[in-house]
Amino acid sequence: MTVLKTSLRNFFAHKGRMALSATAVLLSVAFVCGTLVFTDTMNTTFDKLFAATSSDVTVSSKDASDGGETISGNGRPPVVPASVLDRVKGVDGVKSAEGTVHSTSVTVVDGDKDSLSPTSGGPTIVGSWNDNDARTMEITSGAAPENAGQVMVDADTADKHDLKLGDEIAVIGALGTHTAKVSGIADFTVTNPGAALFYLDTRTAQQTLVGESGVYTNVNVTAAAGVSDAQLKKNVAAELGGAYKVQTAKENADANKESIGDFMNVMKYAMLGFAGIAFLVGIFLIVNTFSMLVAQRTREIGLMRAIGSSRRQVNRSVLAEALLLGVFGSVLGVGAGVGLAVGLMELMGMMGMELSTDDLTVAWTTPALGLLLGVVVTVLAAYLPARRAGKISPMAALRDAGTPADAKASRIRGGIGLVLTGAGGFALYLAGSADKATDGSMWLGLGVVLSLIGFVVVGPVLASGVVRVLGAILLRAFGPVGRMAERNALRNPRRTGATGAALMIGLALVACLSVVGSSMVASATDELDKTIGTDFIVQSGNGQLITPQAVEAVKKVPEVDRVTEYKWTEADLTTPDGKTLKDTAITAADPTYATDLRVETVAGKLGDAYEPDAMSVHEDFAKDHGIRLGSKVEVAFKDGGTGTLTVRAITSSEAVVDAGAMYTSIDTLATYVPADRMPLDALVFASAKDGRTDAAYTALKDALHDYPQYTVRDQTDYKEALKDQIGQLLNMIYGLLALAIVVAVLGVVNTLALSVVERTREIGLMRAIGLSRRQLRRMIRMESVVIALFGALLGLGLGMGWGATAQQLLALEGLKVLDIPWPTIIGVFIGSAFVGLFAALVPAFRAGRMNVLNAIATD
After folding, report:
1. Could you report the per-residue pLDDT of 228-265, keeping only the tens digit for each?
2. Contact yes or no for 109/708 (Cβ under 8 A)
3. Which residues pair with 651 in a beta bridge?
4. Axis-axis angle for helices 15-53, 365-390 (nearest 10)
5. Which residue spans within 101-158 are E strands per DSSP?
6. Would you list the domain boundaries of the chain?
7. Nearest alpha carbon to residue 298 among 225, 391, 364
8. Per-residue pLDDT tens over the stretch 617-661
9. Which keywords describe this protein according to UniProt (predicted)?
10. How many CB atoms lie within 10 A of CB 327?
11. CA distances to 301, 423, 519, 521, 610 from 440, in Å
12. pLDDT tens column, 6-54
């Protein structure tokens, strides 16, 4: 009880000094809990949606994927014949059955040809209005579609695009463009997470989406009273004889949930990973805080020991303070996490994904995990300072000797740090010299961990040298004030090293990712310059295939000299060694593709692969299966027949563009695949006539005005798009890393604030002998800048080393250009100086306000 009282008294006596440490715990816990609440809420939203939209039993084609529709290569969804509906209606236990048609391989535009697709990346779904949809949607205006000239739209899409009854919209699919006027608007009775829905009458949906009547993508079956879904599925499956996929409502909902599960898990664990980094940075802050508090209470601890307190009791007293800090920060962090989750939901709403707070899900495990993490991390971080406090002898403490300064321990620490750093450097060397990326990645991971720990451990040793260099370059110009700032930073190398290490971690990751991202862009740009021989690339921004109508529009542009179609298909390959490889990707293109893409070959010429019944394979595939020029490969095309193709070219496996592709001609593909099953183009390449690229570029954009889902890019556009994609990813990662950097800034603030308290008497004496408030504040600011730049130098140097090693592994995959983004690196370094200035504002202001006489009188 005495230990608890002492801990409570000390905690509240230093509540101002504890606030920043508590804030670090709060931020880290909030990020963990916010991530869990946000992802749990998304799961709840989708669970409710899938449960509400699933019929008791659903019958679909065997080719339909679990959890969603599979669009075949010809842009049409797989279907079942109308006879299935008739057979299902007569099955025992069936109350009703209804055939529906829907597709996601469509684009919907308004009268101005502007896309009506969600900006959040949600699907655009066009289908037939049916009783199952009527369960989750209510017609609030107009009426359901009854003929080919009518279409109904969901209320969210209508609001976003200001659609009204009578407005004309167009549905663009693989079979052409269908135009209709809005006849009705339906509102969701469940939360819509961001899809855009358009409804046609059943016959029009069949003709527009599939191209034939009497077929359905799904048959929705409702069970009669007293019949379970499982029994109904058994009865339906028995009638259909296993020729079709039959799923209960739960199976369908689970499959749909699984289809988005990978995305949800990636997002969840990525965010938790950054929260872990913030926790790691927070450890340094807490260690520094308690180390300085223990040092400042040396005499108090000595008195406690002198009157009978044991080492264990002193240790417990400090740990009890850490426990209070952890509980306080964690409780606030759990509440802040729920607020963060709500904020993320609002942000997603602005981006087009609607998430209702009615579905806000806070599982009991979320606050429990947040409290556990916050408390455990805080107590563990305070253990070393608590242990050092327990070692203070009563007589040394009463003489105000402070915590024991063990030179031997410092030497051992430095030696261990150098060994770990050297081991990390050697692991990075092994990673960079690896022959296979898979082997090198393991060494890279080990090297990153060991070098990071090594830098943290050896930080105090490095601080002495690096701070002197920074002081000579930056501080000596400020005269005595600058020299005092340098000495203050050098006074306690362990403290300076720990404070700089907190900033080092975040900046090391920033530098590493910057180098990797910049190298990827530079490598891809270099490869594009070497390999792409066409002027323009036409493709969809959302992965949709290119309709024949759009291809014809491109071919009709007079300013275009050459158009190359490019398709993807799958086939089962039987190689000369007798092995059969299922679902192998094959690229079919026009013979001009050999000119549009300059692929290096190790045997033969790529152009020969476009001869009748010919193909190419890549080098690694040829080695694995004993293939040489002239070898025969049996190819069973998906949705088509089987042929024997002769290998006429073997391409290099080091290619970046179309890495690992196997080529054949579209004419060869057409020999074995019926016209109605031919896959649509994935890409279209075009070259300008007589070098008139500007005129051809404008003409191509004009020709595709009615097809807003497709983008025309020249090589410059393509490079910029690649740069933007990587840049957006990096910006998102930097945003998440900002949490760790904020916690590191709090660490600098806390270190300076406690340092000012520790030097109260010294500051009073300096003021008494003539140091002005302005000079005092400048001294503290410069000390902060030096500490921040010390952390930045270590972090940026370490991160560039990691990034350069990672690029060596990417070089094994063809990305061979190492590009150091010096503007980013220099900008981050300069920004770190401003971080130091910002962190010093409050401590410097408080130091300047000290009463000189009171400061001198301080013990």
Report:
1. 989 999 999 998 888 899 989 888 888 777 767 777 77
2. yes
3. 601, 618
4. 160
5. 102-103, 107-110, 124-128, 137-142, 150-154
6. 1-54+260-404, 62-243, 459-532+716-859, 543-708
7. 391
8. 999 999 999 999 999 999 999 888 999 999 999 998 877 778 888
9. Cell membrane, Membrane, Transmembrane, Transmembrane helix
10. 17
11. 51, 15, 18, 21, 37
12. 555 555 555 556 676 777 788 888 888 888 898 888 888 887 777 777 8
Quick one: DSSP state of residue 679?
Answer: P
Q: How far is CA 50 from the centre of its chain?
A: 25
Is the model's pLDDT at 386 over the cut of 90? no
> Hunting for tokens 């946000």 — which residue is that?
38
Q: In this structure, what are the phi and psi dihedrals at residue 674, rounded to the nearest 5 degrees?
A: -60, 155
Q: CA-to-CA distance for 466 and 468, rounded, in angstroms?
A: 5
CA angle 364, 366, 372 (to 5 degrees): 105
Find residue 647's DSSP bridge partners. 615
Structure tokens at 546: 């290119």
Locate tokens 């913030």: which residue?
278
Note the maximum CA span of the chain: 103
13 in Cβ contact with 277 (< 8 Å): no
CB 579 within 8 A of CB 626: no
pTM score, whole prediction:
0.79
- What are the structure tokens assigned to 218, written together? 């799904």
Instruction: Look up residue 165 and give its two tokens.
Output: 């009854």
**Two structure tokens written together for 387:** 């242990």
Helix, strand, or coil (residue 47): helix
Please name the amino acid found at residue 778: R
- Say which residues have a Cβ less than 8 Å from residue 716's Cβ, sequence separation at least 6: none
Q: 514-547 burial, b if ≥16 CB within 10 A, otherwise e?
A: bbbbbbbbbbbbebeeebbebbbbbbbeeebbbb
Q: How many residues does the chain have?
A: 859
Output the CA–CA distances (angstroms, integers) from residue 427 to 450, 504, 560, 787, 818, in the order listed: 8, 20, 53, 29, 20
Q: For residue 535, give the nearest of 655, 689, 682 by alpha carbon.
A: 689
Query: How is residue 115 annotated by DSSP?
Result: B
Write out the H or E segment, with its range, that includes residue 460: helix 437-470
